[in-house]
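Exam revision sheet. Question 4 asks you to relate a sequence to its structure. Input first:
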Amino acid sequence: MSVRAQIATALEAAARRVGADGDLPDLELARARNPAHGDYASPVGLKLARALRRPPPEIAAEVATSVRIAGVSAEALGGYVNFRLTPEWLRELVAGVAADPDYGGSRVGGGQKVQVE
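Answer key, structure tokens:
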């Protein structure tokens, strides 16, 4: 499962833990527009405010403290929850890529391996 999918799953579970029930609105998890805010962001507080009848920053803060994903930190900012990949997660990703001799290669036609440089 991709890290984005893991975050989306954890975000939905956290929304339920703070009181959202029934069909959830689209929580709009996307790459953060401003890299200073993290790697991914969701306006979850804004999306749930009407249904929960609470201020968006309060909802976002509660969701951020409820999300638990290895290698990802969550922080509330206004009605948004920003997610940042930890340096440890990024190091593991790079180490995995470096250890895989077939990474970046492709098999074309009759199965002959072509190395992309």
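Marking note for examiners. The mean pLDDT is 88.
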